[in-house]
Write a structure and sequence with these properties.
about 80 residues; mainly beta
């Protein structure tokens, strides 16, 4: 099961904004002894339009936009990623 953890606002060098949704897979590990236990996996990213996003590190992301040969690098000032 995946759930939306947060939305990140990022900008390309031209000032265009990109809304990037971060999803985390959550596995239910509960049994009779550990009711409600869960485990989170690595986050996955994609734009609101469904474009693939790769976290490059820090506040940088690479967005694959259809029709473009190379990924567009966008940057966020979100404190969790800076």
């Amino acid at each position: 099961m995946s759930r939306n953890e947060r939305t990140i606002l990022a900008f390309d060098p031209a000032g265009n904004e990109y809304f990037i949704d971060m999803f985390v897979s959550v596995r239910d590990l509960s049994d009779l002894q550990h009711a409600g236990a869960t485990r989170s996996g690595l986050p996955a990213f994609r734009t609101r339009e469904g474009h693939s996003v790769t976290h490059l590190g820090g506040g940088e992301f690479a967005v694959m936009v259809p029709g473009e040969e190379e990924a567009i690098t966008v940057r966020t000032e979100d404190p969790e990623f800076v």
